[in-house]
Amino acid sequence: MSKSILIIEDEVSIADTLAYALKTDGFIPQHLSLGQQALELLRTTTTPPALIVLDIGLPDISGFDVCRQLRQFSDTPVLFLTARNDEIDRIVGLEIGADDYVSKPFSPREVVARIRAILRRQQGKVQMAADTATPRFELKPQEARIIAYGQTLNLTRYEYLLLKTLMESPGHLFSRAQLMEIVWTNAPDTLDRTVDAHVKCLRAKLRQARLNSTGAADDAEATDEGIITHRGMGYSWSPA
Ligand code: CA
């Protein structure tokens, strides 16, 4: 995650103090004095900051408005700087998408500590979203599709049925005879090596999807790609 912090604050001495504390702590501070200017930057930047420190009392538009507009296109965490108690009431009372606030005058170290806490929480959320939203392998039986590393695999009928069977029972050891019975129904002349040949093709396709997703060069290293061979017994699905 980017360690850059955008400070939107019109009082230069406050911004400087904060920027210094952030720099000392390993962050890359950036400072703007106007709300509109900041929104314009945030709308167009390809490298958004990790967090925004936002003063409420800005000369052009209020920090509240900046936050409200920001939330229409960005989830970047916001830490408000506030000078008045009635502002605190508004931050707490309204759902404007603030992550925390600090009252002026503040200790820069306190602000940095709050920033670290918000970023830790954010990191946890992002990780959870990644874990639930993008599993590496997804079986879509209604669509007769299998997605690996975000890409739909281009599978033949038997490859699909074979991988589906394995994926539906992770860790379960299927003998070749069982797989033939489940997958190659109505194909009496199927041989043991038919299963092996299809496993080989599936591994190649899974491997290609994996390489595509990482952009890695073909390392020519043979891996089982989640389809484990149990010598003399059969196969199981165990995506590591
Ligand atoms: Ca101000």
Automatic annotation (TrEMBL):
Q: Which domain of life is it from?
A: Bacteria
Task: Tell me which SMART domains the record gives.
Answer: REC, Trans_reg_C
User: What are the record keywords, sorted?
Assistant: Cytoplasm, DNA-binding, Phosphoprotein, Transcription, Transcription regulation, Two-component regulatory system
Outline the extent of the Response regulatory domain.
4-119
Cell location: Cytoplasm
Q: Name one GO cellular component term.
A: cytosol
In terms of InterPro entries, this protein maps to: CheY-like_superfamily (IPR011006), OmpR/PhoB-type_DNA-bd (IPR001867), Sig_transdc_resp-reg_C-effctor (IPR016032), Sig_transdc_resp-reg_receiver (IPR001789), WalR-like (IPR039420), WH-like_DNA-bd_sf (IPR036388)
Record-linked SUPFAM superfamilies:
C-terminal effector domain of the bipartite response regulators, CheY-like
* One Pfam family named in its UniProt record: Response_reg
Q: Which residues bind DNA?
A: 129-239
**Predominant location of this chain?**
cytoplasm
The protein's name: Two-component system catabolic regulation response regulator CreB
Q: Which organism is it from?
A: Undibacterium pigrum
